[in-house]
Amino acid sequence: MFRLSALAMCCLAIVVAFPAGATAQEKVHIAVASSLRAPVDAIITDFEQQFPNYDVTVAYVASGKLVAQVVHGAPYALLISAEPRYLEALYQRQLIQAEPVLLGFGELVLWHPHQRGDVATLIAAADYVALAQPSHAPYGQAAMHYLQDQLAAEHYANKLVYGENVAQAAHRVHVGAAEIGFVALSQIVAMQVPQSDYTRLASAPLLPQAIALTAHAGQHRGAQLLYDFMLADGSQQTLVAYGYAATK
């Protein structure tokens, strides 16, 4: 019986795995603030259609957690934060290639399903008010600053329940664990929430979103391509469609 040598078997396996004309996809690992999930998912779908040789893997985390992971050696090639100062701290430690660049501006809103009234009335009527953890989530920090500016602490302090990030804060409202919650406008747009079920907070400042390539990006051409793609007009239009204010 004819037998293949070990070398021949190895070569055959390679041919089967990568038939003529096929190329292996390059993995591009990135970390993104959880508030940006919907638009970034859409942008990555467009990117992978245009550049099929690249496979983008995304970790969605709170911006502060994102930074901690990079400091401890997480091999992300690209980062998007809902607070530029987190990326600036990485730049000071030479963990990103250059100073972060603004990608867009997010907006804090109050989600109050099937409830009506101004913000003070809604908070007074609620048993629980959800927000992201202010210690490491920019939308949580923005929500806390808004509350401190608008209301006396006794009106809300005992009602606050925290999510690890703004996605978890929204989940608390979605499942009824909190009647109302401070979330990102992009989440509201993605969920197609009726305008009557959320309130835009005119006095709350917009949240700048920033992007940067890490020290690992030099090993990945795909990371640079994705970085440029994120800043291109088409991706900016996607961000605007999800409720972000453009930088241009």
Molecular structure report:
- α2 packs antiparallel against α10 and α3 packs parallel to α4.
- Helices cover 40% and strands 21% of the residues.
- The chain has a 5-stranded mixed beta sheet. A 5-stranded mixed beta sheet has the order 7-6-8-5-9.
- The protein folds into 2 domains: 132 residues, Periplasmic binding protein-like II (D-Maltodextrin-Binding Protein, domain 2); 93 residues, D-Maltodextrin-Binding Protein, domain 2.
- The chain is globular.
- The protein is α/β, with parallel strands linked by helices.
- The relative contact order is 0.20.
- It starts with 5 loop residues before the first helix and ends in a 7-residue tail after the last helix.
- The chain is built from 10 helices and 10 strands.
- β1, α2 and β2 form a beta-alpha-beta unit.
- This is Molybdate ABC transporter substrate-binding protein.
DSSP helix count? 10
The residue ranges in which pLDDT falls below 50 over 5 or more consecutive positions are 1-22
The amount of beta strand, in percent, is 15-25%
Largest sheet: 5 strands, mixed
Output the radius of gyration: 22 Å
Mean pLDDT: 88
Strand order of the largest sheet: 2-1-3-10-4
Helix/sheet category:
alpha/beta
Global morphology: globular
Q: What do we call the CATH topology of the largest domain?
A: D-Maltodextrin-Binding Protein, domain 2
Summarize the structure.
With 248 residues, this protein is α/β, with parallel strands linked by helices.
What are its keywords?
21% strand, molybdate ion binding, D-Maltodextrin-Binding Protein, domain 2, disordered N terminus, ModA, five-stranded mixed β-sheet, 248 residues, Molybdate ABC transporter substrate-binding protein, alpha/beta, metal-binding
